[in-house]
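Bug report (template v2)

What were you trying to do?
Predict the complex of my protein with 2-acetamido-2-deoxy-beta-D-glucopyranose.

What happened?
Run completed; filing so the output is reviewed.

Input:
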Amino acid sequence: MMDGRKFTFIFGFSILPLLCFSASFVPQDNYLIDCGAASNTSFGGRNFTADAFYKDLLSTKRDVLATTSSKSIASSADSPLYQTARIFNEQSKYKFSINQKGRHWIRLYFYPFQYQNIDMSTANFSVTAQNNVLLSDFAVQKNPVMKEYSVNVTSDNLVITFTPSKNSIAFVNAIEVVSLPDELIADDASSLNPPGSFTGLVTLAFETVWRINMGGPSISPANDTLRRTWVPDQNFLVTPNLATNVTNMAAVTYADGGPTENIAPRSVYGTATEMNSSSDPRSNFNVTWQFDVDPGFQYLVRLHFCDIVSKSLNELYFNVYVNSYMADKDMDLSVSSNNVLGAPFYKDFVTGPTDGKKIRVSVGPSSLNRDYPNAILNGLEIMKMSNSKGSLSVATAVIGTGSSSKNKVAIIVGVVVGTLCAMVLAGFFFVFCRRKRLRRQGLSKTWVPISINDGISHTMGSKYSNGTTLSAASNLGYRIPFVAVQEATNNFDESWVIGIGGFGKVYKGELNDGTKVAVKRGNPRSQQGLAEFRTEIEMLSQFRHRHLVSLIGYCDEKNEMILIYEYMENGTLKSHLYGSGLPSLSWKERMEICIGSARGLHYLHTGYAKAVIHRDVKSANILLDENLMAKVADFGLSKTGPEIDQTHVSTAVKGSFGYLDPEYFRRQQLTEKSDVYSFGVVLFEVLCARPVIDPSLPREMVNLAEWAMKWQKKGQLEQIIDPTLAGKIRPDSLRKFGETAEKCLADFGVDRPSMGDVLWNLEYALQLQEAVVQGDPEENSTNMIGELSPQINNFNHDASVSVAQFEASTTDDLSGVSMSTVFSQLVKSEGR
Ligand SMILES: *[C@@H]1O[C@H](CO)[C@@H](O)[C@H](O)[C@H]1NC(C)=O
Ligand SMILES: *[C@@H]1O[C@H](CO)[C@@H](O)[C@H](O)[C@H]1NC(C)=O
Ligand SMILES: *[C@@H]1O[C@H](CO)[C@@H](O)[C@H](O)[C@H]1NC(C)=O
Ligand SMILES: *[C@@H]1O[C@H](CO)[C@@H](O)[C@H](O)[C@H]1NC(C)=O
Ligand SMILES: *[C@@H]1O[C@H](CO)[C@@H](O)[C@H](O)[C@H]1NC(C)=O
Ligand SMILES: *[C@@H]1O[C@H](CO)[C@@H](O)[C@H](O)[C@H]1NC(C)=O
Ligand SMILES: *[C@@H]1O[C@H](CO)[C@@H](O)[C@H](O)[C@H]1NC(C)=O
Ligand SMILES: *[C@@H]1O[C@H](CO)[C@@H](O)[C@H](O)[C@H]1NC(C)=O
């Protein structure tokens, strides 16, 4: 496959996002022809060969080699190519032998000049390639032009034919025929008019009409792996005052499975145009660009996105319009980019055949983003698509051909019928697409039976569901009727939304017996949705633990994907650390939260025959109940056992940026130690109360894991702790905590402690804080993780003490396994 897919990843640098290189593309066919030249031309790092040096390339009866010394082209970057031309009096062909079939650039350079008695500006001719008409009745009046096409070459030779119109001549200054990576144009795209999907793009020829770098400067071919030119968007903004530039190159993270630099370079994804909300951060408007196009063609509109503005995932939602069609509603770049913040993403749309002379593209805030509406666009390409005759030529455009009155009738009929049909069609397409997606996921409507113990699990851990039944719901066990869910959420009242995640929205709800619940409603657009929905039900119906969020039920009626959980009064751990203005937690509260979540993870790793790897451990997935007891949530990405990934080595790296295990990233091999790594990041997050990735900070501080490790290694962790904790952490406790986090972040999984060891060390750190432990803490804290002072060993060998302290009621642990497992871990670690 493509070299560009490969990663180079070096851990330990402060510019993590910059370190994913993709090798530049090496074209199999690379013809650079300087037409009419007597010698080869080298410029801009490339060698154009004089067409005279290619044997059998050109077949022509009469041609003229023309040269000019005109100064008017000196300003053009390609000026050396424009100094010579070949002039044809009759049909003439260039024949290129093709090493590798597939998509190729065809770039044609034209500059008309006066040569002896020939005035090339009077030339009028057509150009065809393969079965495509690239140009017809074409004339270039004055300035140099370069026309760029991409054609899927399907035979061993590509013939480009120049045919002068009657009594005229044809000419060309230079030609490029260069292979393109297959990934560049996929076969399908979303169709805007009619709505649905468009397939068959691979067979078409395209002409590049516009290629725009939003919010940034021009990008020259030298800075693009496929030698494309990108121009700034300023001149296309309908209301420039409503938009503003944003640049953040370091945030761009080319991720596995996503676009490579061949799709668009970093300098495109690293700049964007966003809403100018400087006068009112809550104002609601669209940013709109407008482009002239030739009417009578369909266009492939490619929108490039990369969330370089958010501090964390799931902050940015916006709508995208193309020609006033809603192209993408509530677009969530976190979902589109597989939950890697700053991962590039693009989306293709095909316009209708009769959409006029302008293409308008707008982005505007989604109603989901009430507080800080924003919308961005990083890049845009508009490509004209060859029509049913294989033509890209304006002269062959099918507009107003035939009787115009017939067209008018058709339009009127169309409006009437169209209005009637639009809804029916839209509905049809919607259902059709959903069906198709469901089928693709390999899931029929019947659910895989899920082993359910006895349906009483919802009574655990939450005082709301304490001993009560679920009324209507409980009759059906876990499966809850849709009407009950509607009722519980006030018919999915938007004002009851308490969170938005990769999967969809989360509503607060109340069952009719008063049980408070959190209702997570799957977003039908979410590609991963169904698989994650299933995983989560399977995981949660097997795992019951007071430190794992419990599932009360689910609903899969009407293709819905709804999960109903116990309600966690105090929200996410993250919200208590920063960004929400909640009062800050004490050190003891934080330690207990860390211990609780470590316990939940430890149970996942060991409490079941097969280890379960959470894969998305982060502070936003640790929830707090009314007593600030921590529970681990969001099992959508979980997988059992490391062996799964050995058979699916190509599994895309999932998880959240800033928490990702570098070893998993490098080797794509998943083990429980990846969770340990992420948990180590959470520990530093808890200590420092700042986002794990904060691009607004100086470079060496952007990545919390690296920043904190730097200070930890210097032994000065206290320099960067949350100021509200200053002076409140006992040095020994801090030292133990820091060492534990440091061990979790070891480069290699084998060097990291198990979750059981982590749990154990955190408990020790808490003991040190509370000064329960006698003796010399200095000595203890320099011990290896897992090694314990005699006092601590004694303390913990008394299992009942430990259990009583942290598992107030072990009966809540349905598993009954977890504590003994913890204990055996502790005993085991002692012997190391
Ligand atoms: C261009 O040709 C020169 C010699 O004529 C050679 O040294 C150089 O490597 C060539 N450049 C490329 C990009 O092929
Ligand atoms: C021009 O380039 C072609 C192909 O790269 C080469 O075969 C030819 O020898 C070169 N001619 C001169 C005069 O350098
Ligand atoms: C080229 O010639 C054709 C007739 O052969 C004519 O219809 C057309 O207008 C000419 N195009 C230009 C741009 O002059
Ligand atoms: C080129 O077209 C053929 C069908 O004509 C298709 O099978 C192939 O995938 C296309 N190649 C690319 C790179 O689009
Ligand atoms: C935005 O960037 C472009 C290209 O760098 C520049 O021409 C333009 O002046 C910038 N606009 C603002 C408002 O900074
Ligand atoms: C473009 O490439 C040149 C060198 O080829 C480099 O100096 C320049 O910084 C690059 N510009 C951008 C925006 O990447
Ligand atoms: C943003 O809007 C403010 C107020 O309307 C205006 O003063 C400012 O010039 C705008 N900024 C840009 C970059 O257009
Ligand atoms: C944004 O543009 C779309 C399409 O033109 C329109 O429907 C929508 O109302 C606009 N939104 C705002 C806030 O102006």
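What did the reviewer find?
Residues 30-180 form a domain with the Jelly Rolls fold (CATH 2.60.120.430). The pocket of 2-acetamido-2-deoxy-beta-D-glucopyranose (ligand 2) is lined by residues 39-40, 49, 53 (CB under 6 Å).
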